[in-house]
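[Automated response] Your request has been received and processed.

Submitted sequence:
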Amino acid sequence: MAKMVKNRSKVHYDTVVCGGGPAGIAAAAASAKSGCRTILIERFGRLGGMGTNGLVNQFKVPENPPGVAELFSSVSGRENDCELLDVAYAEMVSGSGAELLLHSPVCDVITEQCGDITVLTGVRVGTFSGFLDIIGERFVDATGDGTVAFLSGAEFEIGRESDSLVQPATIMFRVSGVDHSRSMEANGGRGQYRFPEGSWDHVTMAACRRGELPPNVGKVRTYMAERKEDRYVNATQVNSIDGTDAFDLTRAEIEGRRQVPVIMAFLKKHAPGFETAFVSRMPATIGIRETRRFRGMAYLTREDCMKGRRWPDAVVTGCRKPLDVHNPVGPGQAGKVSADHPAGKDPRPRPYDIPYRALVPKDTDGLLLAGRCISGDHHAHASYRFQRICMATGAAAGYAAAESLSQNVQPRSLDVKPVQNMLGLDGRKKRCDSGDIQQ
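Generated structure:
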């Protein structure tokens, strides 16, 4: 298991990674494997972020870049295993040489001012024994909400450009007792299975309109689990939630869990094979899709994703996850609603890059961003927030933290080529100028 830090009043590290989800795990492993004394701090009692605590089981080991897949080689094949994935992650962190501190949320930061630039020098975490100051040379914010960057005063955005509304929050849950042979997954898949009304989305949106489902629940997603008789369900939807506000989160937790029995009754009535199914597991915490996005030295946009923009300082390549915008004000997805797709349809981008500079906040030194809080707009975020891409940005941030110390420069001044080599991107085709698009 990973080495645990004994409680003290102050400790020192080369690299301090905050947040034990996929991005933070990758960052800690990359930094430690590069020879830096590294600590990974996590507010919950287990690693994995939403992949374990939130039952978001669509986990895939990244194939690109190769340097990330190598980091995660010990957890290959665990894409549906929410129960034991945290143990595999802890062994991965331990094997890299990084230390681990659980049950320790970041409560404050320690900074210095250098002209117009804030320099981050430490974080203060809360423990059951009191506060602990963790001093470091480099920090990686992989908290999802950008807690460290926010406390450091870094510039950020929240929500879509038109009204600042964010994607809804969701309680994932697991169902057991499914007759797999009769299920949609065993008979063409949820997207292909046809009912008298049409597609499964036609069934769910009709139920939403007649009040059989909660007002904002118009899309009920079911996913295969570890056993054929189990499914993970992604359906509950709580709108108008600020995921950085404790009172909003409290309301969301309760409201989201109240929707579960209503959705379960709908599944038992309408989903083939669910007639005798039952809820077998609820998550430890609600899933938050979107909160703060920090302004970096580069900014990824919807257009960049849709046109497949290439960047000379790319640290993640071949991103092709859909722009998965869950409707901030109603049921289903936010875009492309039609007769064929009553719950909406996500735009699919051309394979695009994420530039290193999107991981570097423009007004804070000593800090790198990783995961869903990197620099980009509301629509780009809906693609790069997926776990697989978060892992890749985490690895890039971890290697960059170590390399900036090796070069004795701040992350904003880093020569990124060695990081690209560490990630296995050195053999890639010649990159275009940052303003160009490679066809």
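Summary generated for your ticket: The chain has two domains: 3-157+291-422, 173-281. Confidence is low (pLDDT under 50) at residues 429-439.
If you did not submit this request, please reply to this message.
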